[in-house]
Amino acid sequence: MNYSAALVYLESLGTFGIQLGLKRIEALLAELGNPERRFRSIHVTGTNGKGSTTAMLASILHAAGIRSGMYISPHLVDYPERMTLNGQEISRDDFAAMIGKTRLAAEAIQAKGMESPTEFEVLTAAAFLWFAEKQVEMAVVEVGLGGLLDSTNVINPVASIITNVTLEHTDRCGGTVAEIAMHKAGIIKPGAPVVTGATGDALVVIEAAAAQQQVPCNVLDRDFFVSEFKISEAGQSFVFSTQQTEAQTYRMGLVGRHQADNAALAVRACQLLAENEPRLTAAAIQSGVAQARWPGRFEIFPGAPTVILDGAHNPDGVRTLRQTLDAVYPGRAIGFVFGVLADKAHDEMARLLFRLSDRVVVVEPNSPRAASACEIADEISSCVATVSVAEDIASGLLQAKLWAGPQGVVCVAGSLYMIGDVRQLLLQR
Questions:
Q1: CA distance 14 to 7
Q2: What is the separation of C-alpha 277 from the centre of its chain, rounded to a whole number of angstroms?
Q3: Same domain, 215 and 322
Q4: Are 393 and 291 in contact (CB under 8 A)?
Q5: Same domain, yes or no, for 243 and 331?
Q6: In which order are the strands placed within the sheet that holds 83-85?
Q7: Mean pLDDT by 10 residues, the chain (429 residues)
Q8: Cα 379 to Cα 60: distance, rounded to the nearest angstrom
Q9: Distance CA 362, CA 376 (A)
Q10: The CA-based dihedral angle spanning residues 349, 351, 355, 360, taken in that order and rounded to the nearest 10 degrees
Q11: 346 with 272, same domain?
Q12: Domain that residue 411 falls in
């Protein structure tokens, strides 16, 4: 199987959609010889910040000299972004080979009466197979959706991280924060300490799950702390401390007050793992946090004007984005390129993200689930100074740049589908 054939096969699996449950992935991995058992893993879930936290953990492992893998979803531009080894994406040839082997396993379980695995299940199995074949020592695995019934929940991690919990995927994980927290707490396993930034009802559920599995639960702002936060366009710094350890200053390239909290989760998890992994020194942890990068999350493209790409696509995400914009670029004119999926809380997102002085160009993300640009423009016309509709992302970006002017800022947000397209456009230029 070559890369093009692999993409065609994956596209054919898209017809099965999202189907939560572990029977298919368990059968698929068993057919492949259970590669997920041949490396240690760290499991990461949460409503916001799980991708950034995953990236920082993988960067720390790499800085420590640990042969490390990372599995994330979704990708911004190409599928190989989802699987990395020591910070390097899987090659297209290796990706095609792993998908080819996984396809044979999928056909084998179907011949035994099992229904077809989904696209995400095939990708997950292929990633685990690649990690095993490349003799990864430890992989950081990001949950796709929820946790309890997510395809990644076949691993037995050495640590479980739950960044935070707010309302999302209510059609699949429940209509309350507590019900959603129950799904995310499903990644908690015996022998794996829990690190979380959750609060309120979600924290109650997570602590109960940790107690049931008889593992410690480390909570941000209770067991470990972030202080002395400083931010600029060039990066930021913060002080991390616990009640037992000496305070240390960390510098990082990821921008935003929320990224300091995400970094703290990664730092605390690695401190706990260091008890059995001597390569996770304080210096390695500091170096890994400083070197971590996460494309499409307050990613800055310098220029005239500066362009910011941020994958915020829910109310909490855009609230954090606005706070970061105000902190880094106070008083600067901002032109937004905004596109959103129809199933998102776009009215609330608009109220949180935009100011009356802002100018917004609405576009439709490249997705069959995209909300109508005209309808979104009508919806937000009362809360911004100027709003218009662009026929495509490239023209929308150009219009926002003209609005912002050389000294201004352009911010692209609302959908990860759109972020990937804009990022590819900017890199090509």
A1: 11
A2: 26
A3: no
A4: no
A5: no
A6: 88-89, 83-85, 68-71, 138-142, 40-45, 159-162, 194-196, 217-219
A7: 96 79 96 98 95 97 98 93 97 98 98 95 98 98 94 98 83 82 97 98 98 98 96 88 91 93 98 97 97 94 94 89 93 90 88 92 90 93 90 93 92 91 88
A8: 43
A9: 7
A10: 50
A11: no
A12: 299-428
Phi-psi region of 226 (alpha: psi -120 to 50; beta: other; left: phi over 0): beta
Q: What is the pLDDT of residue 171?
A: 64
Do both 336 and 226 map to the same domain? no
Same-domain pairing of 270 and 306: no
Place of tokens 């410690």: 216
What integer pLDDT is reported at residue 5 of this predicted model? 98
What is the spatial distance between Cα 224 and Cα 112, in angstroms, rounded to a whole number?
50
List, in order, residues 6 or more apart from 28 with CB less than 8 Å away. 102, 105, 106, 109, 117, 121, 122, 125
Q: What is the CATH number of the domain that holds 402?
A: 3.90.190.20
**What's the rounded Cα separation, in Å, for the pair 419 and 308?**
10
pLDDT at 17: 65
Overall number of domains in the chain: 2
Cβ burial of 397 (10 Å; 0-12, 13-18, 19+) is buried
Token representation of residue 245: 């350890």
